[in-house]
Amino acid sequence: MHPPATPPATLPPSARPAVDAAAVPFSAGTQPPVTALPAGACDAHIHVYDARFPAVAGARLRPPDASVADYRRLQQRTGLRRAVVVTPSTYGSDNRPMLQALQALGDDARGVAVIDGTETDAELAALHARGVRGVRLNLSLGVGTHADMLAPIAQRIAPLGWHLQLLMPVDVLLAQAAVLSALPVPLVFDHFARLSPADAGRHPAHAVVLRLLRAGRAWIKLSGGYLVSPEHSTEDPALDDLARSFLDAAPGRVVWGSDWPHATASAGLQPLPDDARQLDRLAQWTGGGELLAQVLVRNPAALYGFDALPELQPPTET
Description:
Elements: E1 42-46, H1 68-78, E2 82-86, H2 96-105, E3 109-113, H3 121-129, E4 132-138, H4 150-157, E5 163-167, H5 170-175, H6 177-182, E6 187-189, H7 204-214, E7 218-223, H8 225-228, H9 239-249, E8 254-257, H10 263-266, H11 275-286, H12 289-304
Parallel strand pairs: 1-2, 2-3, 3-4, 4-5, 5-6, 6-7, 7-8
């Protein structure tokens, strides 16, 4: 078990002014988090959507437009500073919406692309120069993706020092356990590795993820809790044991993401989450203090290669 952490710092009611809900698209609620976030806090999983770019044939999710300007309002509401923009399944391997978002967000953003493996070295180097630090392989909602792509994609991105981000059904994860353990790149499991709360300590895929985390071979995103909860809510207390299992196993290998703009919710498939409450739930899981700062600041800085913020650097001795 991780040691008791300092209780989360909270903002007094007078410091939590209501925000017009219409000013924060695709996020329920009107209040900032109760928990005061550490400086440089990172949202490690967001998407952008833009109808000017065509959806790939067969795309299952086609949510409304969600822009960087929309997301900036969420940052203002929550106190988040950094963001990781992930190319969603909607666009296949068309990374242009993600790259435009990186340009708009500047040095406080990194990207996770989707590739098909035919890209040239120069094309991958160009993605790296624009802030991409990983590739996502979506075996749950992706079009034309399959488990046989794991090794070729990993080998393709290994020279760049990138990671391979995975979204896959837990039975597929279990079936590919030996392959995953042998890949030449770090792995990042998003959305709680698609494990449900009932899988904690029961499904053998949970043990696989914990083993990879402890071995320093993988990272986990505490994102999309509302996706894996049978109640479709991050408030679900059944998520507590699952979240803490990852924090206990490898506190230095856990990051957090909002999953804004919540494509399944904005498409009307489930309730829209309150992102401020998602952050407060993270504070509950971590106990706040140093572990919360590790998950929101230090871990994503290490995974995505963010530069040290001037205000976070130690003072220079004279």
